[in-house]
Write a structure and sequence with these properties.
The complex is a heterodimer of chains A (about 260) and B (about 350). By secondary structure, chain A is of the alpha/beta class. Chain A has 8 helices and 15 strands.
């Protein structure tokens, strides 16, 4: 059976070279290249459509990095094996060693490629380990993976207006619509740090979406406190009004007005 | 080829001399940094002196103005004299250089006093003597300061600093270019050859002395070769607009002054940002100064703009070492583009 392979690299000659190498080792390792794409979102699309067995994934790409692509792949029900490819990135390689993730160094050699493909079945992307790598590198995702009715889609982090924890899920609100994710509000806050402000124990608001604060008299806020009224966030993109808890107010005021 | 702090300079560490001795100890009167520092220091010293020796501020001020009539011309003449000493008598033994350097302000002050005497500025003899003594003291202190400074900067120390600022091939660029050459070597051997030649030339420049001044045209040529490699690697996404104005045909720039800036632009404009990347390179001469301008797109989102400056510390350091206050590097973000402007004096000699 031939193995289906997807090549992901933003540099055209690098994709060409990988195809040449796969052709060269075809006798040892018969494979079929289902695609050669130059960016992360296209890679995820191709994976969902053509179901490759192995993804050869360049790490440093503009926009979505290879590590982020792998994290989104890890959310798939049956993720393809991932082999990272990189020219040189000391920090990434260190993190990879720690997490025992496999990688190939450019310029890639035919024998190394064959060996990596042969053991590729063991290389299913693993979200916790990738998350550790991303944390070690201080890299943030540019998108969140959303699964809806068995379909995976991407929500750009810069589109998010606010995030609100409900009972079991976190609601992601963009100007267009709502999505649900199983990721926790705390881990999202940790990863995207300065982009969002925590205004309430269950709400993070995108700093750039805050239009104004307004004081509401006599209403009861989410912490069950009432009487003197509380503050609310007015948004640029949406008409929702988001209550600020009394405990967060001093901090919100300080970080958004400075 | 940006600096990587912490990388050990094992390959090009050289035998270093034990006792650094500068060849010239006369302050460089033609250097803007020296001119500014001396003008400030001398005026401040005279101002403090008059303040200390006069009871009222008004009297002190009047006296200072009087003395300025001697101080400023003497100062200018001294700078010119030092400049000439450095230019025309660079081979004198060090003690002779020092003596001449000290004598210059004294001679200039005496000459000024003699010159202003007939036009009505009549100073008492004691004031004339003290003016000459002050000139001697300031001259000696200045010469001593710049000699110490020169020692602190050279040659071992400067060498070490330049070593630290020596450009390096960025491994990421190096391995990716080799990978790109390997990809085209079968399909387009001629192109592969050209790329390897360009890579070799970049290497030669990177391993050369970063203090070397090369004709501007050489540096531009190197930049074009570098861009060609990057365009093979990154494809049509990367375009560079070259806007090279009329520049003195013998103008020289430090080797690898512009290339790392363009590399920085590629790194942050094309390697980090998706989509097309247009880099603008503009070189023009403004009077006696050369202006080098490079701009690249940056992320619209300020949160994603980190890092553009990292590669620039090295260039700033080199500008400071080579040109002192005469080299300038400014950056700003405007209309979602990162803009960098360097201005340096137009040099026509091979060494500075």
């Amino acid at each position: 059976m031939t193995t289906k392979i997807l090549i992901v690299d933003d540099e055209p000659p690098a994709r060409l070279r990988m195809q040449q190498l796969l052709a060269e080792i075809a006798a040892q390792f018969p494979s079929q290249v289902v695609g050669a794409v130059d960016n992360g979102p296209a890679a995820l699309e191709t994976v969902d459509r053509d179901l490759p067995d192995i993804v050869l994934l360049d790490i440093s790409m503009p926009g979505m990095s290879g590590i982020e692509v792998a994290r989104h792949l890890a959310a798939r029900e049956r993720p393809p094996a991932v082999i990272f490819v990189t020219a040189h990135d000391e920090h990434a390689l260190e993190a990879f060693e720690v997490q025992a993730l496999d990688y190939l160094l450019k310029p890639v050699r035919a024998d190394r490629l064959a060996a990596a493909l042969a053991r590729a079945t063991r290389l299913a992307p693993n979200e916790p380990r990738l998350q550790d790598v991303a944390r070690a590198l201080g890299s943030q995702r540019t998108h969140l993976t959303i699964s809806e009715r068995g379909r995976m889609s991407l929500v750009p982090v810069e589109d998010i207006v606010f995030l609100r924890a409900e009972l079991k899920y976190v609601t992601i609100r963009t100007p267009q619509r709502e999505h649900l994710t199983e990721e926790s509000l705390t881990s999202l806050e940790e990863e995207f740090g300065p982009r969002f402000v925590r205004i309430h124990r269950n709400t993070l608001v995108a700093r750039k979406s805050i239009r104004a604060f307004e004081r509401v008299r006599g209403a009861v806020d989410g912490d069950g406190e009432g009487g003197e009224g509380h503050w609310e966030v007015l948004l640029k993109e949406l008409s929702d009004r988001l209550p600020i808890s009394r405990r967060q107010w001093p901090q919100v005021k300080q970080t958004t007005l400075s | 080829m940006s600096a990587r702090p912490g990388a050990a300079p094992t390959v090009n560490s050289r035998h270093e001399e034990a006792a650094p001795t500068p060849k010239q100890v006369v302050p460089d009167g033609c250097n803007m940094g020296v001119v500014l520092r001396l003008a400030l220091a001398a005026n401040a010293a005279v101002a403090l002196g008059t303040l200390a020796s006069h009871a009222s501020l008004q009297l002190a001020w009047a006296r200072f103005l009087e003395l300025s009539a001697i101080l400023e011309p003497a100062l200018l003449m001294t700078l010119l004299g030092w400049c000439a000493l450095r230019r025309f008598l660079p081979e004198l033994p060090l003690p002779a250089q020092r003596l001449l350097a000290w004598a210059t302000p004294v001679a200039c002050t005496i000459a000024t006093i003699l010159a202003v005497g007939p036009i009505g500025l009549d100073l008492p003899a004691s004031a004339r003597l003290s003016a000459v003594l002050v000139a001697f003291a300031i001259g000696m202190a200045t010469q001593h300061y710049f000699e110490l400074r020169e020692r602190a900067f050279s040659p071992t120390v400067t060498e070490a600093r330049f070593q630290a600022l020596q450009s390096r091939i960025r491994p990421h660029f190096f391995f990716n270019s080799l990978n790109a050459v390997l990809a085209v070597v079968r399909a387009d051997p001629l192109r592969a050859e050209r790329m390897l030649e360009s890579v070799a030339e970049l290497f030669r420049a990177v391993m050369g002395d970063v203090r070397k001044l090369v004709p501007l045209e050489h540096e531009l040529d190197l930049c074009r070769k570098y861009v060609e490699i990057e365009q093979t690697r990154l494809g049509e996404r990367l375009t560079v607009d070259w806007d090279i104005g009329a520049v003195h045909p013998r103008a020289r720039v430090p080797q690898l002054l512009l290339q790392p800036v363009i590399e920085n632009a590629v790194r942050y404009g094309a390697e980090r940002l998706a989509g097309d990347c247009r880099i603008v390179v503009r070189v023009r001469q403004l009077g006696f100064r050369l202006e080098l301008f490079v701009s690249n797109p940056v992320a619209k989102d300020p949160l994603q703009r980190e890092g553009n400056q990292i590669g620039l510390a090295n260039i700033r350091g080199r500008l400071a070492l080579i040109y002192d206050l005469e080299g300038e590097l400014t950056t700003r973000v405007r209309h979602d583009r990162f803009e960098l402007t360097m201005t340096i004096p137009v040099e026509k000699r091979a060494n500075r």
